[in-house]
Structure to design on (152 residues):
């Protein structure tokens, strides 16, 4: 939560780059563990910290394709609003707000539930991770079913 020190100011690039590295390490364990053959993207807005050349370079070095939302993107804005509204309704509304450390301690479990268990109508009532696992399995099966081409 290093970025809280810059409240009211634009977010500097260094904490953004550190959070990007932490997120990749938390998700994949190590940069070397990134799955090959599947394009991974880092989707951000157009804030100066996110479009900085150094941030983009680090994202690419981590195996991520940096992608910024278009300046006027109703679709991206709608997806972000949908996430925020769902998270507020289903998780934040049930949290203990007695102090900041209590709130922060509840967030990991809420995000884990949202990604692993919570059904999403746009994902055919599957959780995001369940949907991705099924999608990866479908891709693997379709690759196995394709006949091998032999060059002569």
């Amino acid at each position: 939560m290093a970025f809280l020190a810059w409240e009211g100011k634009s977010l500097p690039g260094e904490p953004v780059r550190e959070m990007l590295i932490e997120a990749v390490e938390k998700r994949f364990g190590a940069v070397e563990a990134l799955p090959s053959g599947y394009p991974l993207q880092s989707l951000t807005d157009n804030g100066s910290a996110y479009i900085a050349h150094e941030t983009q370079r680090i994202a690419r070095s981590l195996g991520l394709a940096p992608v910024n939302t278009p300046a006027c993107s109703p679709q991206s804005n709608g997806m972000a609003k949908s996430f925020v509204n769902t998270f507020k309704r289903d998780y934040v509304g049930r949290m203990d707000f007695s102090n900041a450390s209590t709130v922060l301690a509840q967030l990991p479990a809420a995000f884990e539930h949202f990604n692993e268990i919570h059904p999403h109508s746009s994902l055919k009532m599957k959780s995001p991770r369940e949907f991705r696992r099924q999608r990866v399995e479908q891709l693997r099966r379709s690759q196995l079913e394709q006949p091998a081409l032999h060059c002569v």
Notes: Helices lie at 13-28, 48-51, 53-61, 74-90, 100-116, 128-145. Residues 6 and 12 are 8 Å apart (CA to CA).
